[in-house]
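Notebook B, p. 112. Complex prediction, attempt 2.
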Amino acid sequence: MASQIPAIEITGLTKDYSVGFWRKRMRRSLDHLSLRVEEGEIFGFLGPNGAGKTTTLKLLMGLIFPTDGTANILGRPIDDISMHRDIGYLPEHPYFYDYLTARELLDYYARFSHYPAEERRVRVARVLERVGLASAADVQLRKFSKGMLQRAGIAQAIIHDPRLVFLDEPMSGLDPIGRHEVRDIILDLKTQGRTVFFSTHILSDAEMLCDRVAVLHEGKLRGIGSPGKIVSLEVQAMEILFEPVENQPLPSNLAQHATPVGGRYRMEVPEAELYRTINDLRSCSARILSVSPVRPTLEDYFLGLVERKPNAPVEAHAQ
Amino acid sequence: MSAMPGVVAINTFREAVRDRVLYNLVFFALLMIGAAIIVGQISIGIERLVIVNLGLTAISIFGLVMAIFIGVGLVYKEIEKRTLYSLLSKPIRRWEFLVGKYAGLILTLVINTAFMTAGLAVALFYVGRPFVRSDASILIAIYFILLALALVTAIALFFSCFSSPMLSTLFTLAIYVTGLFAADIRDFGALTHSSFIKTATSVLYYLVPNFHDFNSIAVAAHGESIPFALVWQNTLYALMYIALLLVASSAIFSRRNLK
């Protein structure tokens, strides 16, 4: 999968913003970020609000300029305009010329790739179909809902068949069907051998789609690797779901740890106490419905990261 | 030459055409020309002078309003609404975007001025005045108005690259008004005994564009001819200033962080 030239190579990328009335104080938004994304990967860029995800994407797009560090996209420096022929970008909360229709907007963007009129027409129709906007093709964008704008944004990012697509919060504002369709588009791009770099805070999407993820917090890279590697696969606890005998109270040692869930009980116990708990349940004739290991999710990792003090040690792997 | 500015220019023109404010301006400009007809009819013997004077003034004022109010928002709106983000991810350089926006507004101004010129021609035709050779000076006066508008647009665009529309409007208007009276200001400075004021007014005279030289409305209204040398002089003068302003705008905008 990996070619010699990475799709994205970021080295020590740093961005400081001047803040305050006199703009003399500096606030670091991105702190020496280094990472490498291989061609053909779906790469998730995770982090809470204000982590530096959008800043990174804006730096890569040349919308803002780095305080320090460098980045190459498809082997070319980010200030090389020719590189932009091979990339697509969906900004966060996209907004477009609201006096244009979706068809006109996509035709406008396709002109930057020098396609002749007939090819533009075919491409625009195809991509509108792909993002589910074919029926709204001739509606002015001022009448679009947030979800429709998001779809138009994705359409403009892929209208020219880029090798690498950057998506900033692509699922934002979409209903479940829309999210499912965007997931399909991302997977389609991967099937076509494209690289997708997307930022998100919807962790289930990242777990489902990404070959690798990077977690960013307070401008610093906290971890990078496959979702399974980022999250330790060690069992944290065992979950037992059981049904007590009708009209028979639970023994106090079980009752204090069990949570009633619709006539059933759920409890989490340390792995070492599993058999003792099962014996306790058997002794009071409870019906054990399931016993399953509890593993941390990416969400748990994410929450732990946010709650962790900034200088606390990072447990995730750094590449 | 890159084709990118052309793509942006056509879209900028389309935006202006679909903007209702623009139609209002054209409507009021045509209304002014209509008023010129009425005033012309009661100005026995000097219909031409009145109609041409009022008509050209209307073209100039409404063109100026368009150039400033659309010009100051050219870049600002694209940043504020973040439409620029997806645009700059395409293979277009920032200077190409700027030149495209500028060209789009100039195209809009040219077409609107053409409409208003047609209105003025209709007004002159209505009062039964045959077109004569000296009417060429009216067209030259309109060309000068367009040159001045192109210059004002470049100034508005320049401020639009780093300032809010409100401040950009103020700065552009201030430069325009100063430019209209640049020669008077210099002459005033020459009359004082303060060497500082003399130097300051002199610097101001050479720094701001001299808009007074683009005003040939009175000459055209009186049917006098405009020397051809002035056409060349004004053209080169305007082009030089516009080029300088576009280069400065590009230099500023190319270094700007888009937050």
